[in-house]
From TrEMBL:
Belongs to the class-A beta-lactamase family. This is beta-lactamase. The lineage of its organism: Bacteria, Pseudomonadati, Pseudomonadota, Alphaproteobacteria, Sphingomonadales. Gene3D superfamilies: DD-peptidase/beta-lactamase superfamily. It comes from the Bacteria. It comes from Sphingobium limneticum.
């Protein structure tokens, strides 16, 4: 009897719970979602968001198809040995990197350390400019006018042209050629402003997935800070910069140079530089047309004929960009050469030799660079 009563009570409880559950309302959506679901009327006087519908220009260099690269290929052991011995025996801090373009290896000494680039960095400015041309942001025939307020320091042949008439108008393509073949600092800084300044160059390198290449604040700020000076535009005239630098206490100059070398704002890793050169040669940095143009201009470089180029034999070709930093005797800094060597059979090697700091004379620096070129030639293995 009691068992039947218990079952009846349990049945009534089940029915009661079900009834209560039916009375519970469904959960409300969050207020933000509910508000978004109701069309909002424009509020008079308040700017309304719009969507740009401008036509988008195709990417200049879309991802390329898979390349047939032998990832098991290894560098010649003799080349590895020579590069190591050259780096170890040189009296100074040096970085060396050699990359066979189209292969999957790089031979390096101090390849991931950061070395002052100096004018090597002009290469990244030219690449950023040509990338802007590829994307339709600039035209290669666009012109600009350079005035006395745009002049920089050290090597700037354009200063004479500006002085003739108080200003000088030319095309961006001419400025790029002058920057790359004559290492004209004012031409390069003018081109740098046209592309959007240092941040535009850094952004370009990041988009091309090139790491460990810094880009400094521009020629004037970089060189004045390295010397221990605050930039003034009158330093761009004549030898005013040299005179101001010479008046500084030696301790100030030494500290400024030490700080620069310890963490160069324009520092770059040799292995990263040869990677970027290889990508340029393979049209992975710029469009094919822009790549051909830049490589052609680099082949016309007038600077550094006794650096790496001095060790390149007949039948081989070499295109490049040099860099040279400030001296504070007995130290010399930022003595560099980077470029692409091409064998008679068409095989190319990206090469970088960067002397961060040394007390040896120029002939010994030349000898090191030429020895790297000769090692590449001696260990070239035709495919």
């Amino acid at each position: 009897m009691r068992s039947n009563e218990n079952r009846a009570v349990s049945a009534r409880l089940v029915l009661l719970v079900a009834a209560l559950s039916a009375c519970v309302s469904a959960p409300e959506p969050p207020r933000a979602q509910a508000a978004a679901a109701i069309p909002q009327k424009p509020i008079p006087g308040r700017p309304q968001p719009t969507t740009n519908t401008w036509p988008i220009r195709p990417v200049a260099n879309p991802p390329l198809p898979y390349r047939d690269i032998d990832q098991n290929e290894t560098p010649p052991p003799a080349l590895v040995s020579v590069v190591r011995n050259l780096g170890q025996s040189f009296r100074g801090k040096v970085g060396i990197a050699v990359r066979r373009i189209g292969a999957d290896w790089t031979v390096a000494w101090n390849g991931t350390s950061l070395f002052p680039q100096q004018s090597v960095s002009k290469l990244w400015v030219s690449m950023t400019f040509l990338d802007a041309v590829d994307r339709g942001k600039l035209r290669i025939t666009d012109t600009t006018t350079i005035t006395r307020n745009d002049l920089t320091l050290f090597h700037q042949p354009t200063a004479a042209l500006v002085a003739q008439n108080g200003g000088w108008t030319t095309s961006y393509s001419d400025l790029m050629r002058r920057a790359m073949t004559q290492s004209d600092n004012t031409a390069n800084d003018t081109l740098l402003r046209a592309v959007g300044g240092p941040e535009a160059v850094r952004s370009f390198l990041a988009r091309r997935m090139i790491k460990d290449i810094r880009f400094g604040p521009g020629e004037r700020l970089l060189q004045s800070a390295t010397a221990g000076l605050d930039w003034r535009q009158d330093y761009a005239i004549g030898r005013n910069f040299y005179a101001a630098r010479a008046k500084l206490p030696m301790a100030v100059r030494q500290k400024a140079l030490d700080n620069y070398l310890a963490s160069p704002p324009d520092g770059a890793a040799p292995s990263s530089i040869v990677q970027a050169l290889a990508k340029l040669k393979q049209n992975d940095m710029l469009s094919p047309a822009s790549s051909r143009l830049l490589l052609s201009i680099m082949s016309e470089a007038k600077t550094g004929p006794q650096r790496i180029k001095g060790g390149v034999p007949p039948g081989w070709s070499y295109l490049h960009k040099t860099g040279t930093g400030q001296d504070l005797p007995p130290r010399s800094t930022g003595f560099n050469d980077i470029g692409i060597m091409t064998a008679p059979d068409g095989t190319s090697y990206a090469v970088a030799v960067m002397i961060g700091s040394t007390t040896v004379g120029i002939p010994e620096r030349w000898a090191l660079m030429q020895a790297v070129a000769k090692a590449v030639v001696a260990n070239h293995e035709p495919r």
